[in-house]
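Page 37, continued from 36.
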């Protein structure tokens, strides 16, 4: 009797799933200074299979001029490396990049502080390649309150006008770093999907940056996605960060379904620069919440291991495909213009 072929191992299934999926990391942080050789570090994401990465242009302490200059620097570098990278303006661009073996790139901005009252800046930033923006980064601005504010006044009238402008131009609204009441207001007023680009479950780790189950449910109700980040202070432990990362994915998936969870590693490529910023800006990152040089980051090299860990947990291949990138791609398809 002829023996049947051996069953495919978990590692083989994971490698194939990772190779075939669109891998989407929704938040990547590079140094905000004119590009040099360090931009080549994005090859680490490419080697890990990344199809799409969202590059951060700045947060609440970064002036608008620097954000625009960094967008120009990044765009020029991507154009000079078009055999491997491409700017993504539409969801179709991401799919095409996958087919061509290139990595698609768009930008994000953490908070609306830099644009002040000028809502017309939202369209300009969209033209430059920004595809999602936080409303508030940790501390209150003209749009609303942050997760580290002692009082949360909710979304302001200006914030509602900004939300309407997001919807007009195709910008995805994000509530990471935003205060609970302000986030609830955004989720209630939004006409389409809202994301938490890089936020973890507060039910698993108590931290003001992590989000409660009611916000996760409200996000899912908009059709949105919660992107799990890879920072130890938000995961809860640094000795098993991959296990904790997958546990946060599983919490969101069990609560609202696997269609509403994704990946936003928040990996910082220049961690010394981050530590310098943390030490100089305790108004934005207040003491007592773990911000400092002891924070560990889940590196992009773990992306294939995330795929295998999800399959080991028993997730269906279609659900793993969504978590790895299909869910954020669905939001982009619906919102980007």
């Amino acid at each position: 009797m002829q023996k049947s072929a051996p069953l495919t191992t978990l590692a083989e299934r994971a490698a194939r799933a990772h190779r075939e999926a669109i891998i989407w990391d929704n938040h990547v942080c590079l140094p905000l200074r004119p590009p040099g050789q360090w931009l080549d570090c994005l090859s680490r994401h490419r080697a890990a299979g990344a199809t799409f990465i969202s590059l951060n242009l700045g947060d609440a302490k970064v002036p608008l001029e620097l954000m625009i200059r960094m967008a120009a620097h990044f765009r020029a570098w991507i154009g000079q490396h078009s055999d491997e990278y491409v700017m993504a303006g539409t969801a179709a661009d991401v799919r095409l990049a996958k087919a061509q073996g290139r990595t698609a790139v768009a930008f994000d901005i953490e908070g609306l502080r830099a644009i002040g009252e000028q809502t017309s800046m939202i369209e300009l930033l969209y033209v430059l390649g920004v595809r999602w923006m936080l409303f508030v980064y940790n501390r209150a601005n003209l749009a609303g309150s942050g997760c580290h504010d002692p009082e949360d006044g909710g979304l302001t009238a200006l914030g509602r006008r900004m939300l309407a402008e997001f919807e007009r131009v195709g910008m995805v609204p994000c509530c990471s770093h935003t205060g609970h009441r302000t986030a609830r207001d955004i989720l209630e007023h939004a006409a389409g999907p809202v994301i938490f680009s890089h936020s973890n479950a507060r039910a698993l780790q108590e931290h003001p940056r992590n989000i409660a189950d009611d916000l996760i449910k409200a996000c899912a109700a908009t059709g949105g996605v919660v992107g799990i980040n890879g920072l130890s202070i938000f995961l809860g432990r640094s000795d098993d960060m991959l296990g904790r990362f997958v546990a946060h994915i599983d919490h969101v998936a069990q609560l609202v379904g696997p269609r509403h969870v994704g990946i936003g590693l928040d990996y910082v490529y220049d961690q010394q620069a981050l530590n310098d910023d943390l030490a100089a800006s305790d108004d934005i990152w207040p003491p007592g919440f773990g911000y400092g040089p002891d924070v560990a980051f889940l590196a992009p090299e773990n992306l294939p291991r995330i795929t295998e860990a999800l399959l080991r947990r028993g997730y269906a291949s279609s659900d793993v495909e969504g978590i790895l990138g299909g869910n954020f791609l669905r939001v982009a398809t619906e919102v980007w213009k």
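The radius of gyration is 19 Å. Flag for discussion at group meeting. The longest strand covers residues 103-109.
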